[in-house]
């Protein structure tokens, strides 16, 4: 599992204080056992910024068994960043090519083959020449997988939002159709994964995976090598941490209230009002 830190950067960028720290988040995730770190530096730098990409690479130098996955559109600035990482001798294991437009709200579709094929072929080769594995972000279309392999891609990342949406709808007991739709989605993803593997590709998956839908996906879609998870994982990290955090702030207030200065202020009678 690779943890996507976009949303930590998004929160940090809302002020100029440097918190929450993307680097500390990465360190905590790696210490907890995450297999890698993912970032998706978008051209508008709304979350991950150029300096984050390099600072994280420096951090990952100290974690040699973990993977650094950078996502983005190879026709924007992604390959220039990859070249700079290599020039500085920094780690870069995987580039995930995503067909997002500039300013796109979030990724919502994969590459379309053969339409995108001829422009992808040279950038795949350039990324591989830099020593990076190349994964193509793809819809779960079994018929597209052999074409992805024919372009030289090493992996595909199956875009899992449609699966996640079907899973979330199936949680609703009033909708009998929902679980049928979920089964249909799972079959589609399993068929896409099998087609990819038969073509010689390894399979990643990501987008809107979460604690509720992850196990079902991995149980029914064979041979997934890697999942990258960001939005839900960071939201969970916040929610699972509220209690401990509020307790710590209350402890600060209690410590201040117990200080001699606070005790003295409490003992001093208020000046009577006229
Ligand atoms: C490719 C993919 O599914 C994720 O990287 C997703 O694009 C996350 O990007 P945001 O965090 O900007 O929504
Ligand atoms: N490649 C998908 C990813 O990195 C994270 O997507 P999400 O969990 O933020 O939807």
TrEMBL record:
It is found in: Cytoplasm. One of its GO terms (molecular function) is pyridoxine 5'-phosphate synthase activity. It catalyses: 3-amino-2-oxopropyl phosphate + 1-deoxy-D-xylulose 5-phosphate = pyridoxine 5'-phosphate + phosphate + 2 H2O + H(+). The active site is at residues 40, 71, 207. It comes from the Bacteria. Its EC number is 2.6.99.2. One of its GO terms (biological process) is pyridoxine biosynthetic process. 1-deoxy-D-xylulose 5-phosphate binds at residues 42, 47, 106. Catalyzes the complicated ring closure reaction between the two acyclic compounds 1-deoxy-D-xylulose-5-phosphate (DXP) and 3-amino-2-oxopropyl phosphate (1-amino-acetone-3-phosphate or AAP) to form pyridoxine 5'-phosphate (PNP) and inorganic phosphate. Belongs to the PNP synthase family. PANTHER family: PYRIDOXINE 5'-PHOSPHATE SYNTHASE (PTHR30456). This is Pyridoxine 5'-phosphate synthase. It comes from Serpentinimonas maccroryi. The lineage of its organism: Bacteria, Pseudomonadati, Pseudomonadota, Betaproteobacteria, Burkholderiales.
